[in-house]
Amino acid sequence: MRFFAILLSLLAFVAAPAGAASSPALSSLEQQLNALVADKSADVGIAALDLNTGETVSIKGDTPFPMASTVKVAIAALYLWQVDHGQKTLDDTISGVPVRTLMSRMIIRSDNHAADTLLADVGGPHALHQWLHQNGVTGLRVDRTIAELLRDKRDLWDRRDSSTPVGMVLLLKRIYKSELIRPESRNYLLDLMARCQTGKNRMKGLLPGVPVEHKTGTLDGLADDVGFITMPDGHRVAVAIFARGGSNRPATIAEAARTIYDGFKAVFSWPFRPALTAQ
User: Fold this and answer.
1) Three-class DSSP category at 258
2) Which residue of 23, 42, 61, 187 could cross-link 243, Cys pair, CB 3.0 to 4.6 Å?
3) In the prediction, which pLDDT does 258 show?
4) pLDDT digits (tens, 9 = 90+) for 1-48
5) pTM of this prediction?
6) Cα(142)–Cα(106) distance, rounded to whole angstroms?
7) Which of 3-7, 67-71, 232-236 has maximum average pLDDT?
């Protein structure tokens, strides 16, 4: 009887749905990140993906967190997809303002009005949500404009306008690999993200001199940062870090980003390997 009980337990374990598992090669990094977030008062979700090797690490990777302004990466991607398919151009104007200006304001300065202007032009929240899911980007949901989100009662556990860390990293991967937008559009977006002026004490805070292309998100009680960290050998790691509640959220994000950089560098960057060129 004991044998059958053990067998049933094993079968139940195998049949259980898998969470966002970290790669075995990154088990030490996962332990370090777990120890880091366990010592914090904030609720923290993390995912990181090596764009050369495909190795991943995640902490609460399948837990939804409010996207806040990190959704602006998705808005930009959909607009650029429409540019790639001949529906729009970056030289268009909306209400007399050049699209390039709106894009710059949205990504570099996190301008909410610019974001909602571009979001309306691509069809609104429902169109963005449908486009993401039709292209296999799951784990994100888009329900409201930025103005609507800010007007509504704040609930940091609201599933609307949320993303899991793994879902956001999937979006970043699809952008970087030119699976959603063409290489020229990707390079344009990454250039804007490299010039992001918000959140200098977050992902970039403890990485002086390290190239980082990122986009922040902020609400009362929430700090997010998502983007790409370039490793010493030139390849990138896609990263999403969300922190809600508690205190010292930007510092927590900075510490997590530094831990991710050191962990991936130790495992994958040396000896030198040529960086993967995105197609």
Assistant:
1) helix
2) 42
3) 98
4) 334 333 333 333 333 333 466 888 899 999 999 999 999 999 999 999
5) 0.89
6) 17
7) 67-71
Using CA atoms, how far apart are residues 54 and 59, in angstroms rounded to an integer? 17
Burial of 5 (0-12, 13-18, 19+ CB in 10 A): exposed
Q: What is the mean pLDDT of residues 55-83?
A: 97
Choice among 18-32, 84-98, 141-155, 227-241 with the minimum mean pLDDT: 18-32
> What are the angstrom distances between the C-alpha of 126 and each of 55, 62, 132, 159, 209?
32, 22, 10, 15, 39
Q: DSSP letter string over 10-73?
A: HHHHHHSPP--PPPGGGHHHHHHHHHHHHT-SSEEEEEEEETTT--EEEESTTS-EE-GGGHHH
8 Å CB contact between 261 and 210: yes
pLDDT (tens digit per residue) in 96-137: 999 999 999 999 999 999 999 999 999 999 999 999 999 999
Count how many residues are written for the chain. 279
Asked if residues 278 and 178 have their Cβ atoms less than 8 Å apart, the reply is yes
Query: Which residue type does 256 have?
Result: A
Per the CB < 8 A criterion, the answer to whether 235 and 276 are in contact is yes
Cβ-based burial of 1 (10 A; exposed 0-12, middle 13-18, buried ≥19): exposed
**Can you give the pLDDT at residue 25?**
82
Look up residue 28 and give its two tokens: 């030490």
Domains of the chain: 21-268 (3.40.710.10)
Q: Which DSSP category does 153 fall into? A: P
